[in-house]
Amino acid sequence: MEIHHDRHHAGYTSKLNAAIEGTDLADKAIGDILSNLDMSNKAVRNNGGGYYNHDLFWKVMSPNGGGNPTGDIAKAIDADLGSFEDFKEAFSNAAKTQFGSGWAWLCVKHGKLEVCSSANQDNPMMPGIGCGGTPILGLDVWEHAYYLNYQNKRPDYVNAFFNVINWDEVNKRYKDAL
Ligand code: MN
C-alpha cells in the first residue's frame, strides 16, 4: 500500500498537474474535469482518472473497516441491489471479471445504486464509461494493487477487500451523491 500510494498514486498526481498546468482545466475541481472530459485527451484521462480513483480508494478503506454496512447505505443496498450478499457477489464479479487493468465500482446513478467496472484508470463520471454514475466505493484491480501480496490470485485480494471497507465513508459519499 505504501509503494502503491507513494509511487503509483504520486505518479498520476504529478503527471495530472503537469498536463493541466497553464490550461483552462488548472483551476477546476477534479470532479468537473472528469465529468466534462474530452476523452481524446489521454494525459488527463489516464492521470486525472488515476489521481481521483486512488484518492477515493484510500479513503474507503480503514484498518477498522469491514463487516456489514449500517445506516442509509445499508438500506439502499437492500432496496437497490437485493441484499448485502447480492451486492458482494455483484461487486466481486465486477472486480474478478474485469479483464486486464481496471476498477470495480459501486456508484449512485439517478439516486440508485449500481455496480460496474471500468478499464485502465477510466472513471464512471467520464463520458461513456461504466454505469455513468458517481462512484462511492472503488476497488483497484491493476496487478500493481495486489501482486506483491497475492501474486496472480486476484480473487483472494478481492475477497480480503471486504475486511477493510470503511462503510462510514461510503455512507457519507452515498448521501453526498444523492
Ligand atoms: Mn493503483
What's this, in brief?
This protein has 178 residues and is an alpha+beta fold.
List keywords for this structure.
three-stranded antiparallel beta sheet, minor pseudopilin epsh fold, 178 residues, Helix Hairpins, binds manganese (II) ion, single chain, alpha+beta
Question: How is this structure best described in words?
Answer:
By secondary structure, the protein is an alpha+beta fold. The chain has 2 domains: 58 residues, Fe,Mn superoxide dismutase (SOD) domain (Helix Hairpins, Orthogonal Bundle), CATH 1.10.287; 107 residues, minor pseudopilin epsh fold (3-Layer(bab) Sandwich). It contains 8 helices and 3 strands, in the order αααααβββααα. The chain has a 3-stranded antiparallel sheet. A hairpin with a 2-residue loop joins strand 1 and strand 2. The longest helix is centred in the first third of the chain and has 19 residues. The relative contact order is 0.16. The model has no long low-confidence stretch (mean pLDDT 97). The structure holds manganese (II) ion (MN). Manganese (II) ion (MN) binds next to helix 1 and helix 6.
Provide the number of structural domains.
Answer: 2
CATH class of the largest domain: Alpha Beta
Q: Classify the helix fraction into a percent range.
A: 40-55%
Count of beta strands: 3
Task: State which percent range the strand residues make up.
Answer: 5-15%
Order of helices and strands: HHHHHEEEHHH
CATH architecture of the largest domain: 3-Layer(bab) Sandwich
Roughly how many Å is the radius of gyration? Answer: 16 Å
